[in-house]
Specification:
It contains 13 helices and eight strands. By secondary structure, it is an alpha/beta fold. The protein binds adenosine-5'-triphosphate and magnesium ion (MG).
Length: 303
Amino acid sequence: MLLHRELAAPGVKQVFPMRPQVCIFPSAVRASYHRHLCDHRKLPFTTMAHVFCVANQKGGVGKTTTSVNLAAALHQAGKRTLLVDLDPQGNATMGSGIDKRTLQHSVYHLLVGLAGLEAVRVASPPGGYDILPANRDLAGAEIELVNLERREKRLREALTACADDYDFVLVDCPPSLSLLTLNGLCAAHGVIIPMQCEYYALEGLSDLVNSIKKVHANLNRDLKIIGLLRVMFDPRITLQQQVSAQLEGHFGDKVFNAVVPRNVRLAEAPSHGVPGVVFDRASRGAHAYLAFAEELIERVGTL
Ligand SMILES: Nc1ncnc2c1ncn2[C@@H]1O[C@H](COP(=O)(O)OP(=O)(O)OP(=O)(O)O)[C@@H](O)[C@H]1O
Ligand SMILES: [Mg+2]
């Protein structure tokens, strides 16, 4: 596993010393991971939007909460932002104040070529950003895309039309390493990985890094891992503290400084159709996402 003695930084206490033989990062994955992460200061964007996937194939780790709140926080920081809901669950759509049940056109129509960008794009009134919304129709795209040409590049091609309209494009990925996620990874310059500081989260990270490595090698040479974002963090839980410290020890400044706490206001906001940073700007969760947006802007350089 990641916390194996040979992977951890010197002086970092092992959380799971009883399983020293288990390593979730084969050496090739570790090498690739560092290559991607170490390059983040040389991001090759200057004029076009920074396109970032928010991805983790594990379910319920805070991808959508991160996507929606980061989009709203970037808007509040004065950045033109587009959020792409690439999940048939449509949670980012609902969390942005758009009713997924009444959509005429969605990302599904865009991906399979039934509608253009202008027909799909809507504004999120509470969030201040634009969104390409989704609903359960998108589940059908998985099957239909298989028979289409350039099936993994459909989103990338669609976004080309609006790259100059935005400073940031965020893609909220579904909890799988599916063709939809592949479309997200092919369209992106970088990946933001929200993760909880738990043992199983670290195991899943290996699969994700492997997938990113394959996409980088075969489909998208621009793709990089931008960083790991610790979410739903509860400092009272010793294991979370330990895993967090080990992540910092091993991945250094590739772990974002911002840490998103477990915060009930973030969990309540979606039921109001409002991003948490708007719903309760004074909450600890909102502060964390606002700080994360500032850190991300700094990390990619001045626009
Ligand atoms: N920082 C937080 N504090 C409290 N609750 C949170 C926080 N982040 C997310 N949640 C809640 O956890 C649940 C899962 O979050 P979210 O939907 O963002 O995860 P996800 O990774 O997008 O899930 P899925 O894999 O199903 O798409 C939601 O109910 C959300 O409101
Ligand atoms: Mg989600």
